[in-house]
Amino acid sequence: MAINKADFAVECVREGLSAGINPHYLLAVAQLRSGIAEGNDGDKIGPFRLTQADWNAHCKDDKFELDFLPEDINDPDMQIPVFAVMARLAFDAFAAANSRNPTATELYLKQFPGAPTATLSADLKTALDTTASLVDSAYTSLLGAPPPAGSTVADPGQPLNGGVRTSGKPIPKGREAIAQKIVAAFAARGLGKFQQAAGLANAIAESGLDPGSHAGKGEDSFGLFQLNRHGGLGQGHDPSELIDPDSNIAIILKEAMRHSDFTQAASLDQAVSAFVSKVERPHDIPGEIAKRLGIARQLI
Questions:
Q1: Which residue among 14, 27, 137, 236 is least packed, with the fewest CB closer than 10 Å?
Q2: Mean pLDDT, residues 133-155 taken together
Q3: Within its chain, how far is the Cα of 84 from the centroid?
Q4: What CATH number is associated with residue 29?
């Protein structure tokens, strides 16, 4: 049965965001290695043409909450989350060894060190160009908006952005789509990974990513970022608006964009500190900075 490439692209966006790896890279690799098709090429299986040994080494991962069986390698939809994690691990290993992010070509060679290199950059460029429109449509289908700047890759020599994970610990199970929505909204405003992680960590701490969360007892706070209707950012807003995830995120982002020490933060510590002290303003600010920084460090 032929793979529906539009559906495959949506899953690449979903799983790329979940693992914190560029979805366009995932889709381009499948295009380069198989034309996004099922089947085998010798001992290489499925759309990513993975060997059974590589699959067995990565199909279970507690941090990313992968738990697949050896025979699941034959399912294209199951290959996507596993390959996304494989790409993220290779990205992190390259960045740690070289003190910089890899380009798409460098990441590919990190994952497939025996690949022929003579025409690799040109072939990867063709695969990126071929899949660019699929990525655009997939972002819009999944998140209701086109991909933020830096999400599509025009040049295989371009350094890839290191993303923020939206699945696995500390993301509450079942809340991955909400985590993706927050990260995408912050990215769409031109905010980088430190700001994205800070925002997501605060939402985890405030509501456990439950859009319907409500806190009373001296306050009247609603939604993902627990916006307080009693003198806080929720003032003047109806509860029905505050429990809408998009509205809640938009309100917190409007406030966050006012603070240059957040928008221009050059480290995760700075971004979390600014967001907690200037935007969220919870009780016990020093204690909450430490708590939320601990969460944020697990996301990147």
A1: 236
A2: 88
A3: 10
A4: 1.10.530.10
